[in-house]
Write a structure and sequence with these properties.
With about 160 residues, this protein is mostly helical. It folds into two domains: about 70 residues, RNA polymerase sigma factor, region 2, helix turn helix motif (Rna Polymerase Sigma Factor, Chain: A, Orthogonal Bundle), CATH 1.10.1740; about 70 residues, Winged helix-like DNA-binding domain superfamily/Winged helix DNA-binding domain (Arc Repressor Mutant, subunit A). The chain is built from seven helices and no strands. The radius of gyration is 18 Å and the shape is globular.
Length: about 160
């Protein structure tokens, strides 16, 4: 495949890759890292893509995997107590902090799941794909998707029980 083909791939699918990464890791800088890692990995193997490739499915899978890899290696940023305000009844900075904490915990919990379960959860609950679409992307059956999703939700509920009150 030609270099212009790669450029066309990035122009066509780049925004979607970035959005999937952002929804998965909930961090703009990390999503940019995922974006770069995905396209760098494809560029390194570019000469090996000789036939037609269903880029949409492939990019979903690669992006989710790269995002989870980076999330697994990430250390959560410490929150300084001086930066926190006392709890208030209104939806202000405290509510924003709680939401950021919840998003961080979800990303950490996703990183602890087995790879297939994490992929299925992201594609189903974050990307909004149905079981048949996920099965097509991951090369498995819709029943496998249902089982993996059930296990992922059960594990995430256990991990995040303190946040579900």
């Amino acid at each position: 495949m030609s270099d212009s083909g790669f450029e066309e791939l990035v122009n066509t699918h780049g925004r979607h890759v970035l959005n999937v990464a952002l929804r998965t890791v909930r961090d703009a800088e990390m999503a940019q890292d995922v974006y770069q890692e995905v396209f760098l990995a494809i560029w390194r193997r570019w000469s090996q893509y000789t036939g037609p490739v269903h880029w949409g499915r492939y990019l979903y899978r690669v992006t989710v995997r790269k995002a989870l890899e980076l999330a697994r290696g990430r250390r959560p940023a410490a929150v300084e107590l001086d930066d926190c305000e006392p709890e208030s009844s209104g939806a202000g900075p405290d509510a924003t902090l709680r939401l950021e904490d919840l998003q961080r915990k979800l990303t950490e919990s996703l990183a602890k799941l087995p790879e297939r379960q994490a992929e299925v959860f992201v594609l189903s609950r974050i990307e909004g794909l149905d079981h048949a679409e996920i099965a097509d992307i991951l090369g498995c059956t819709p029943n496998n998707v249902r089982v993996s999703l059930h296990r992922a939700v059960k594990q995430l509920a256990s991990e995040m029980c303190d946040y579900l009150d």
